[in-house]
Amino acid sequence: VHFALAKKAAAALKGLNYDFAVFEEHHTGKVDSPSGTARKLAEVVIAEGAAKKINYRGEGKKKHEQGEIDIAITRVGGMPGYHELRVGGAHGLLNITSLMYSRKEFATGAIESALWLNKNRKPGKVFTMEDVLKL
Known about the structure:
Layout: H1 2-13, E1 19-26, H2 36-47, E2 53-56, E3 68-75, E4 81-88, E5 93-100, H3 104-120, H4 129-132
Parallel strand pairs: 1-3, 2-3
Antiparallel strand pairs: 1-4, 4-5
């Protein structure tokens, strides 16, 4: 759902002088950095034309450039997954946030998707969660 919300926000606000950033936090055992979800959120914003390129903030000093979407990454404790898309303007901030307490929600989604696919199968068609959730 947060990809669909990110897409809507980016489409509605592109060209209106808003900055976009992604924050993500996971457990210390997570290997990929940024997570696939964080990368996908940034790619959705770029695909909608609300940003031009990803900037991975790290050490050093670098001024934020217009059209960049920053990604901030943390690994701490047993946090299963936190993702936030921030949209900041001169006078306000919009946050689209997801916080997962366990992987159970993903397992449930996989089962529900398989059941949905069994009923809606079309040869050669590739479906996404947006199809399953009717977004």
